[in-house]
Amino acid sequence: MNRIVELRSDTFTLPTASMRAAMAAAEVGDDVWDEDPTIHRLQERAAEMVGKAASLFVPSGTMGNLCALLSHTQPGQEVILEVDSHIFQNEVAGASVVGGLQLRPLDTPDGRLQPEQVRHAIRPSDIHEPATGLLCLENTHNRKGGTCLSPKQTAALSDIARAGGFPVHLDGARVFNAAVAQGVDVKDLTGPVDSVMFCLSKGLSAPVGSMLAGSQDFIERARRMRKLLGGGMRQAGVLAAAGLCALDEMVDRLAEDHANARRLAEGLQGLPGVDIDLSRVETNMVFGDCRPPLTAAAFIDRCRAAGVLLDQAAPDRWRMVTHRGVSVEDVDHAVEAVRRLFGAPAAASLRVAG
Ligand code: TLP
Fold first, then answer.
1. What is the pLDDT of residue 352?
2. What are the structural domains, with CATH classification, of the chain?
3. Burial grade of 40 (CB within 10 A; 0-12, 13-18, 19 or more)
4. 331 CA → ligand 1 middle, Å
5. What is the DSSP letter of 32?
6. Which residues contact 127 (CB under 8 A, 6 or more apart)?
7. Which of 10, 199, 201, 310 should be mutated for ligand 1, with most atoms under 8 A from CB?
């Protein structure tokens, strides 16, 4: 049998049977008129889970982040964020194109901004300079390895912003992974920030959609921005129904994905020409760095031929992501297939299954 192991992203998760049943049965209305009862239920549930007054269902994480940036800032302001953040690297410069914002990227080794670093980046009140309008955090941090910010780190960073007189937005596309990995309530990670976006369509397995949560006022502004961006949907309760299942049924199982990512990383240790930093494997992602002459593109092509699909993160860097569609057997199969390809001996970690 030709097994395919899909490790490109947790966005590849398929809706569960209970999601499909809930979608078929969903009560719906026109959500631009704010009359979809299933969306109302999802928005109330999401706001309650992250400890905010209100929330908004949006088609994607990218749109949720952009609605947040537009709702918190004025054109010409500067937004402080991490250099490898999704907003800076992967959102098509929407903040600058649509919001007229200048982005101020700060580098870190592991995705965790330091309070002092942020404090130094705050603009003084000077006629020549843009005003600092927002701090963006990312938890988990995707491109730096799926690394987590703790409640304490989040609070310390938010305190700096508060002292500087500007708000904090959290790109929490995978904030439930961060909560499960650290054994904390997600509210401990979202409480200190003014707004949070999280995705239903990644590890939580819903087919479409993200949530943006914050104060009542903020969500009213964000609703207007969603319309501006063309994200006002009509009978989208069919999608919200799947989102409700995601929140009720899919959060706790993220621990399995984290265990599988660790098993994968340990299994791939010692591949010739590839370095994997196990200390960065905190959630459902594994990154590998290829040493010349091996390139990430060549590594990915060879793995694909063996039925193991993964993504490129940089010319010499690849990413594997575990999710509900990847079982422990798939992980072991992928490890064995990749080790065989590269002529490495069988992984010690696979000798004891489970
Ligand atoms: N990330 C995707 C790709 O765009 C890279 C992935 O496969 O990981 N914030 C973070 C931290 C994300 O990782 C993503 C998606 C988003 C925002 C955007 O979400 P969508 O794809 O729903 O617009």
1. 44
2. 5-11+253-341 (3.90.1150.10), 17-249 (3.40.640.10)
3. middle
4. 23
5. G
6. none
7. 199
